[in-house]
Amino acid sequence: MLHPLTVEPIVRAALAEDLGRAGDITTDSIIPADAVATARIAARKDGRVAGLEAALIAFRLLDPAVSVTVERADGDDVPPGGTIASLTGKARALLTAERTALNLMGRLSGIATATRALVREVEGTNARIVCTRKTTPGLRVLEKHAVKLGGGFNHRFGLDDAVLIKDNHIAVAGGVRPAVERVRAAIGHMVKVEVEVDTLDQLDELLGLPVDVVLLDNMDPDTLRRAVRMVDGRLLTEASGNVTLATVRAIAETGVDMISCGWLTHSAPNLDLGLDM
């Protein structure tokens, strides 16, 4: 579970965006200030729950005394119509926080659900499903946590926690070797180095250099299989590009260690959730 101090500023900013300058003029006009209500967060479709803690922070920011009963926590599966949590508190708070809470939960549960599907598809192979930095600005920590709740793993969080030398770096540096040499001269001994290659010739050049991981970009399964044999366990291998539910099994069976998938965090469909009063 993410620490509330990490999540609360994100939720607070989302609530402030929705409340605008005058607050919830609809709810405040209709609902008495002292009215109390009970509601449940329910799934309309099957999925993997993620973002519940963020959703509950939204309700608690508006009603610190709200009472919550959790039926299915983050990381749990929920069937269509299943209750995720029940809440009792100020009716105004429940209604005003509803959209922010469901936006976050729907987005994050969608990511967890999509990750779950890919993870299930590669069961029995050596491959891990990992996400990328293709995240929604401001939501990266939540989206990457949702990937973990779906059974996946995180790639680097930002530009500062690992080196990833990509094709544009190589083009500007004048080749793989000068790029790697400049990185190794600049970074500390604790930092991992990954290099992206597009061809087996590039991979052959890379194998003699001091790197930790190779990113095999947009290679078909036959080429990936040859690449894994060339590496022969000397580096971690990561496959990327053209990863779908239909292709991921074939990619995993090539023997790669990791399969990275950008659409998990930039295009996963929301899980349909509702707040039933």
UniProtKB/TrEMBL annotation:
It catalyses: nicotinate beta-D-ribonucleotide + CO2 + diphosphate = quinolinate + 5-phospho-alpha-D-ribose 1-diphosphate + 2 H(+). Its EC number is 2.4.2.19. SUPFAM superfamilies: Nicotinate/Quinolinate PRTase C-terminal domain-like, Nicotinate/Quinolinate PRTase N-terminal domain-like. One of its GO terms (biological process) is NAD+ biosynthetic process. Keywords: Glycosyltransferase, Plasmid, Pyridine nucleotide biosynthesis, Transferase. Residues 111-276 form the Quinolinate phosphoribosyl transferase C-terminal domain. It comes from the Bacteria. GO terms for molecular function: nicotinate-nucleotide diphosphorylase (carboxylating) activity. Residues 24-109 form the Quinolinate phosphoribosyl transferase N-terminal domain. One of its GO terms (cellular component) is cytoplasm. InterPro entries: Aldolase_TIM (IPR013785), NadC (IPR004393), NadC/ModD (IPR027277), Nicotinate_pribotase-like_C (IPR036068), Quinolinate_PRibosylTase_N_sf (IPR037128), Quinolinate_PRibosylTrfase_C (IPR002638), Quinolinate_PRibosylTrfase_N (IPR022412). Pfam families: QRPTase_C, QRPTase_N. CDD domains: QPRTase. Pathway: Cofactor biosynthesis; NAD(+) biosynthesis; nicotinate D-ribonucleotide from quinolinate: step 1/1. It is an enzyme of class 2 (transferase). PANTHER family: NICOTINATE-NUCLEOTIDE PYROPHOSPHORYLASE [CARBOXYLATING] (PTHR32179:SF3). Involved in the catabolism of quinolinic acid (QA). Belongs to the NadC/ModD family. Hexamer formed by 3 homodimers. This is Probable nicotinate-nucleotide pyrophosphorylase [carboxylating].
